[in-house]
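Following the same procedure, sequence and fold were stored together, as reproduced here:

>
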Amino acid sequence: MLRRHALGLLAAPFLLPRGATAQAAWTPTRPVTLVVPFPPGGPTDLAARVVQQGMSAALGQPVVVDNRPGATGAIGSRYVAQQPADGHTLLVAASGTLTINPVVMRTPGYDVEKDFVPVTLVMTAPNMLVVHPSIPVHNVAEVVAWMKTIRGGPAYASSGVGSSEQLGMELFKLLTGTEAIAVPFAGGPAAATAVIQNTAPFAVLNAATVGTHVQAGRLRGIAICGPNRFPQLPDVKTMAEQGLPDHVSGSWTAIVAPAATPEPALARLNEVIVAALKTPEVTERLARVGFAVDATSRQALGKLLADDLARWRRVVREARIEVN
């Protein structure tokens, strides 16, 4: 069993001084660009577009969404890292882009801790441990006991090497001293289908992907891998409630800026984006696709980045995961 201190925290390169709350006096002098390192239509793209209009109205400048997909988010991230640090170009990034690529890719081409500073968290959706309904388990303890009855461990459906879901299962194995064999599929929906068909009997997958399947009885939800229960499935307990407080995994989207962006610009951008996110229209729109608005301070996002980087570095090292 890994202990809490074994996962550790970074020395906090993202953590900001408590006094870093400069009054927002900055205004943009030209259009602001939100770079999305994925194609249009996905959750990260949606996150950019739900804040686009509110930002533009508050800042008095057009806000443009610029999709630059490729290399699981690395291409768009490299582009933003190289832009002037003046508040006019921001990266709207998924958790994998900011805290998994840097620890599983040999050469991501950007250094999250050196190249970016936090603006705000946007939205979150936890992972969830699910099983095929035919498996006679209903809680974490029963899953662990079942896994240990199978020599070499059961097969689990993986949404891809280096995904937050795969790392979530590898973290579960480390924390519980169990074994399981990854069967890779092309993304979360394909992995969910594999569990529904009992091709691979269980998995850690994003709650936004599998929530409707659990509601319909096609899958059994065992545990939410986040600090709080999932609103759409209030009866599914968290990992912490079942004795695994160190098991935290899921998807989130955040906005970061190039390093050395002036404090007044960062403060104003945080203020404007948080206000745009907290409108009922945005909250409802994101809830429909399984995400919760989680607008935060820059300090809170900095801590999340540091914690996740530390967690996934440990898991990747222990599980020997690498993406070329």
User: Anything to note?
Assistant: The CA atoms of residues 24 and 280 lie 25 Å apart. The chain has a mean pLDDT of 91. The chain is about 40% helix and 20% strand.
